[in-house]
Amino acid sequence: MKSPDDIRMQREAQSLQGPVEAANDLAQRLGLEPYDVNYWVVDYDDMNELIAYGGFQSRYPHWRWGMSYDRQQKQSQFLGGKAFEIVNNDNPAHAFLQMSNSRSDQKAVITHVEAHSDFFANNEWFGMFSRDPDAAAMLSRHAESIEEFMQDTDIKRAEVERFIDHVLCLEDNIDQYQPYEPIDETDAAEADIEYGDVSEELGDLDLSEEVQQQVFDDEWLETQREDDDTVRFPIEPEKDILAFLRKHGKQYDEDAEKAVELTDWQQDVLEILRTEAYYFAPQKMTKIMNEGWASYWESLMMADENFAGADEFITYADHMSKVLGSGGMNPYSLGLELWEYIENTENRRHVVEALLCTEGITWRNFHDTVDFEAVLDLLEPDPLVAAVDAEALEEVPAEDPRIDAESLEAARDGDVNLEKYPWKLFTYEGLAERHYSLVKPANRGYIARISMEELERISRYMFDTERYATIEEALADVDYTVGWHRMREIRESHNDVTFVDEFLTQEFVDEQNYFTYEYMRSSGDYRATSTDYEDVKKKLMLQLTNFGKPTIVVADGNYRNRNELLLEHRYNGVALDIQQAKDTLERVFQLWGRPVALRTIETTYDDHDIEVARRRDREPEPEETGRELRYDGTEFEEVELDWSAVDHLAATDIDYDTKPDEWLA
Description:
Layout lengths: L3 H12 L1 H13 L7 E6 L1 H9 L10 H16 L6 E3 L5 E6 L4 H20 L1 H4 L7 H17 L5 H12 L16 H10 L3 H7 L4 H7 L2 H10 L13 H8 L1 E4 L4 E4 L2 H22 L1 H18 L8 H13 L5 H26 L9 H4 L2 H8 L3 H4 L18 H8 L15 H7 L17 H8 L11 H6 L5 H12 L2 H8 L2 H7 L3 E5 L4 E6 L2 H12 L7 E8 L4 E6 L8 H15 L3 E9 L2 H9 L7 E9 L4 E6 L24
């Protein structure tokens, strides 16, 4: 027998079936191609659990999920945060709606989810893992496998959890810019044969210690190491540390006092967690793009197409403003602003090209010749698509490419409610004209704001510059879909790093009032320092490159010809947190079984230089030194390196002053 809560959730799901179908229809008319989405209504506790599990109902047993659940619950209880939805990258996708949401919130979630699902299905970075994912089944299999290891009487549960802890500290140390390739036993076996250590090979011969010392003494072994310079591997630095450890990693046997092979379950767990790291990587790599994309289409559907009813709009607007107005590096607002900027600049370029093909208009006289208000009036959507008069449907031409003839006929027969869903009357072309960005009040200055440099750049590649006799003729040929078409192109190929790098311009920074701030060591506080787009871009890129984490690579798996592991930090001007680096090396040792070293560049400031800089109202110059940390399983050794050993790690464009703690994690 169903509980009252189950009955309420079932009723809620049934009541949302209409909005779900309508939102999917509208999304496809707008040119989106989402995966099919299964919607589930869940209660407060279930939602917190799903968020803790990363959007899935089943994950491998580990304490991290409980910690995430507790944090999410406290955030909701004490900080006023509210979880509206969660959707996963799967085909079909699964989205979860919280029972306590208002109808306005549920509709906003549904439109938001349809756009997310489109992004999952069409962005190529998600295709790097799989173009047709079955993630729920994969993660469920992983959970069952690890649960079996934990229940095995020959394996201690604590050992499995501890091993997972070791791997998770490296979960972002993969090569997210390469397609995921699983590592099988053949790969690992061949690697062990190719890169075996002489001393370990002798150990495999099962010779007595006395014979080894007499025939193969330490001096001879050291000579073999010193003479064999060709055993360095990998040939090029390897970014996928988890793959390297899966192929070559060992564990330290305290009884035997040497490195031994990882057990089968350890190898399986390592590859399971590596697989999941690759699956979730695209979501981390496209957070700004994806949330901005979903916010753009949600806003268009909910506000511009009145998907939010008259009694729901105030609630929607209030909640959306809170999402976009939250502090910090907000991917929703930054992503939305960039997508709108791309749409506006692409539409502007297309209009300007048409105007420059009009007799008497050149890039030199453009601002003096063109009446921008007249241009905007001519670009206003045709009354046919700007509004829907349900009483005058007989006058609507069914053959117009902007009109959906099938829906028009159904509306005439009374089978389509155009008062509630006016967009059902239009095709993609009709909706693009209906929502043309340049004529919206907030964007009406875009055409007039175009710079002389941009005008010259556009005109440089134009040849037939007198196609139109009048501006009216030129604007009659404007394609209202070019902005959306360009947005879809960008959605397919970019990630956050390339997205920000290519489209964050000085015009965008000035329009949105972005600026940089710096930590001033001379005064001990933060100050606004620049509105130059290159500076703003640099700050953002520090947070986006390698998920905002330090980039560490495998430099040598046979360091010092002793099968030690040498890692290198690709320094970008932000120094490592040395204590965190040490904690991580201890974990890596457990996956390598032999000593582990890390090379980095340390930045220091002399107290006297800081005081002098403070008096002169300027910043002190830092001193950079090479440093190597080495952990042998028992203790750490720190040595200063000659600059030639770390010169290749040094940043070419250093940003010393940016130092929020979270960037050092």
